[in-house]
Specification:
Layout: H1 25-38, H2 42-46, H3 69-80, H4 82-91, H5 100-106, H6 118-129, H7 133-136, E1 137-140, E2 146-147, E3 151-158, E4 163-169, H8 173-192, H9 196-200, H10 203-218, H11 220-233, E5 240-241, E6 254-258, H12 268-273, H13 278-296, E7 298-300, E8 308-310, E9 316-318, E10 324-326, H14 329-343, H15 347-357, E11 359-360, H16 366-384, H17 391-404, E12 407-408, H18 411-430, H19 436-451, H20 454-488, H21 501-533, H22 539-568
Parallel strand pairs: 5-9
Antiparallel strand pairs: 1-3, 2-3, 3-4, 4-6, 7-10, 8-9, 11-12
Helix pairs in contact: 3-4, 3-5, 8-10, 13-18, 13-19, 14-15, 15-16, 16-17, 17-18, 21-22
Length: about 575
Amino acid sequence: MEQDSTSYSEGKSGSDRAVRRPEHWPARLAHITSVLVRFGFSSILDRLERILPDSITGTPDPETAKLEAPVRLRMALEELGPTAVKLGQMLSSRSDLLPHEYVAELRILQDRVGPCELSQVQQVIIEELGADVDELFAEFQQEPVACGSLAQVHRARLHSGELVAVKIQRPEAEDTCRTDLQILTAAVEFAERHNAWLRRKHASRQVEEFRYYLLNELDFRVEAQNTERFRHQMEALDFVKIPEVHSRYSTTRVLTVEWIDGFRADDEEAFAVHGLDRKQAAANVARMMMHQLMLDGYFHADPHGGNVLFMADGTIALLDSGYATTIGEGLRTAIVQMLWAWFDGDATQVTDILMDIGVAEQDVDTDLLEHSIDRLMQMYGQLHRSSDVGIGHILQELLKLIMQHDLVVPTAFASMAKAVVVSEGLCLQLDPEFEYEGIAEEMIRRMFISQLHPHNLARQGMRLGRQLLRHVRLLPRQVNQALALTNSGRLLIRVNHENLDRPLRRIDGIVTRLSAAILISAIILSSALLASSSDSDNPIASILTTAYLVAGALLGTWLLISILRTGRQ
């Protein structure tokens, strides 16, 4: 994927860089700032004054100000366009980054936008496919069947007679998104240098991942590849349909796929007309998602009601594969083990796995984390009996705990949690009594069984062997480096002593009393020697002996009192 080359130069101070703004920023920045001010977020702009225009326009809307902050944020993102909407949708899966009320509100973000002019659509097709609409298609419906901030979809018919869906990117979408990404990157980099919480949450890294996914969505060749991969992956499930891609009519900004006639999960009348079992449909949706998540490790990250249709024979059609995510085998295995430990009520193992897959920028109180997880397990057990919560809710609650304990988990984990939440909501819409975790347990067992297959065991053995060989090869070099540092006197050993003040004070007190005891013993011994060796008629010797005895008695009394006080403490 092409990388933006925008650079940021150092400002007057080494820690406070002045950001170099490209020529096309000002107009977009002015619009962004005016929208944020109108929706009551001017305080954010005050902290970013170094990268903002000299004059910020816009006035707060008194009616909007009455709304809760999460609602105002959602409305502002909807107005700011494609990048902001996609950012909000990504954040709606990050309960480890945002409070629950913001996450819940961002889940209902609407990508509302009117259709492009037909002439603009035709121009994009000519630029991308090299021919006019009439030459390429026997029929082309002028009114789009769906509109979004990045693209719109038209129904068409090829000259071969096949019905197709043609997805055309909006003419201004890529330029707007790239400009917004540059602004977002600059703002987050600046804010991260002045905010410890943003640094702990690796905000710049999160923005870079968002940038990667958004630019992938703008390249329809990626969606075509994702669709073909899902077609191959879902062949094992005879109740899932993935539309075929027509490569001849697909490019970076145009995607043509097989047209699917289907209906949504909320169309109860269509289910009744075709005699379909809604409970079975719910189970099939869950099996489809768990197959992707647990067995394949490659999943559709946005399986909402508009992307999951049902055909007349009950087949599930999975559409719009632009947002797909991969979970590596190691992370997938860890998540499966964590869920299995959860079902077994093993809070200790859940805690250990979370610590393994998370990144902590500071010490984490694992005992407190385990206690929180155990308490969540107990609460879930009580709620589960009344079917009020499901596995998606559990994952979201775990993400909230992760945020509270300053852990950062891979984006794939958060995306998986969102996919489960969205698909579980779809299943409950089909069957209000549906229990998603039953399908999850079934798939987890299948994954464990598949891992015991000789082929998988051999593959894991080969991987472990390669890792071991790599470490063996590196060992001599690492030993030589350590010896070289030792010989040069540059070996640095850091000892981090925490919570040792009280033990050190006790040790210091013991040493002090031990010294006093030795001194008292010496004084008493000296007094005894003077008394036995000196002349009784010598007044100076008598005075010294008496003085030594008095000093020894006083010091002994102090030592006794000190020991008694310590014992009471």
